[in-house]
């Protein structure tokens, strides 16, 4: 019931002869029949009839004293009723005649049906106006009480019902009844679990009879609904229905439980509801539990809730996301496939496109936004078949739900340049690489640009050959043209590498039982592609930087100067724009000093030449000033060499002076994947805005918490090689390593082999052995 009504009136008022309802149409309705009239007083007559019309808006009552022709008395502007009590002046013992007709149309233009036959009746006599007696009150439920009494008057206009709670001082009016109502009067709108008192008196105009006796009844507590049903519909939606057992509720509350969690309310409905329309946005593809209870608004401002108990719990499995359909592949190139599908979901946050080269087992995944119906997969191999499947995803910060996959499709990229596009070149050794074409029958020509000094290309054999004597990574552009007028252009990345090598051999060792000998590993191994490196310990883990001093000597010296001066200790990574770079070297933070800038030395001359590929480290600089690099540097987390952002050519080219080995890129990627946000920091008296700051938190807070910054705990030189030593016959001689010294100890007479392993920063290793004779 509406909250503004605490108590419902049961008064059926006498309608005036001028009252009119709006007409449904202007066609005369069918006439009523079977009119019966009963005198219920000296001034009241109960009319009952059969309704034969489906378009009336009301009824016309005609009345006359006996012997006269009935004339218009009043209009009753209420359709679809079959009884009504007419109140007249006092006519004790008089005879009256009645007729009834149905009507339609607006006031003054009514279309009236034929009237019923005349019905005669005599008013009761003589007139009485005594107080009602025998009042009883019986509880029906939590909001209704049934009242009955004995009618001792026959000239009343009706009865006034009064009530109060048992502890209240003053009586209130509950409403009035018509004169013929004297039993089964239902007092609605009572509060649950309350004791009420009732009394009744007759009224006639402004005159009242004496009061009846007082009757008492207590309402039941607010009753819980029962027989809850939950029917699952598409994409985690539900319909509910239940049995309403209360007449005092202001509404209903449905609660939900997911997995091992707690119940919490998810929806509220108004009074007298027993079913819902389709409700959406429930958790997807999960077993859910539901329960329902009644509530009533209480308190002076009606803002507090009073609840019934709960219904029984129902357990239902929600439906998953609707899967996409009609997956197909449209436009194709030698390195891409455009996938299309039909979007059947209303709740997805994105779509997941899985693809793999046919014949392989592992899928790679790409994602689109919500409502997207196509995606172009790039970076594929030319002339290859791929298996592709698509599904919808609904994800937030905490969880993800997936639709079933649509039927998988298979598609082939166009022919072009294929094969290994990242060949390795050992420094100082001959290099030979043939450009692979997936279909040579259609090939008309191949060109290669970007060759570094030392390498040449033979168009006839498609061979790149030569020798490079310094470290670096070089980007070549290979273009193949075909007789069908298509062109395939691919980037071939040539990376120089060299694992550790044996620089000098160990000599044989002779010692006695319990005797010792110290053998140094210094000078026995070398790493041709690494002459110096740095190690950064960060709050996200450790990574190394292998320097390129031959390609960028000034920049490497500049970086080491900052590191040796301790300027990179307490530094934090202040910029990590999505899928671009992780940048640091500009700012520090300590609790004692707050935010400070890294002290800068003189700018260093630009030394471009090595490509800004994933894993390379380059200096940051001022836009439009090629020679402005000082202290800030960044790690490329993807290939940034070509457009966009073309770091190899932009602003004179960004100087690559080192690289992070694969193991260290796991740490860099961890930083790259942290949430980012723009923050203001205070530097002395200045306030500076830093953009895309990575923070080590589930979500980036609105206000920067310095303890969540990714900081450098220490920065310094990294060992070029690390060593392990193992005695293959430890019962004859043992070997232990301390720094670069091996201590060999004789155990028993005989000959033992000592193996020494050297590992570089890339994880490459080489071993050599020496013998120990114990006598």
List the helices and strands and how they pair.
Elements: E1 33-39, E2 44-50, E3 58-65, E4 71-76, E5 83-87, E6 95-104, E7 111-112, E8 119-122, E9 133-139, E10 144-150, E11 158-165, E12 172-177, E13 185-188, E14 195-204, E15 207-208, E16 215-218, E17 226-233, E18 237-243, E19 251-258, E20 264-270, E21 287-298, E22 304-310, E23 314-317, E24 325-332, E25 337-342, E26 350-357, E27 364-369, E28 374-377, E29 385-395, E30 400-402, E31 409-412, E32 417-418, E33 424-426, E34 431-434, E35 436-437, E36 443-449, E37 455-458, E38 463-466, E39 473-482, E40 487-497, E41 501-502, E42 509-511, E43 516-520, E44 525-526, E45 533-538, E46 541-547, H1 553-564, E47 581-584, E48 587-590, E49 594-597, E50 616-619, E51 633-636, E52 656-659, H2 662-672, E53 676-683, E54 686-694, E55 712-717, E56 721-727, E57 733-738, E58 741-746, E59 750-760, E60 765-774
Description:
There is one protein chain. This protein is an all-beta fold and 775 residues long. Helices cover 3% and strands 46% of the residues. It has two helices and 60 strands. The strands form 17 sheets. The chain has a seven-stranded antiparallel sheet with strand order 47-51-50-52-46-45-55. The termini are far apart. Residues 1-25 have low confidence and may be disordered.
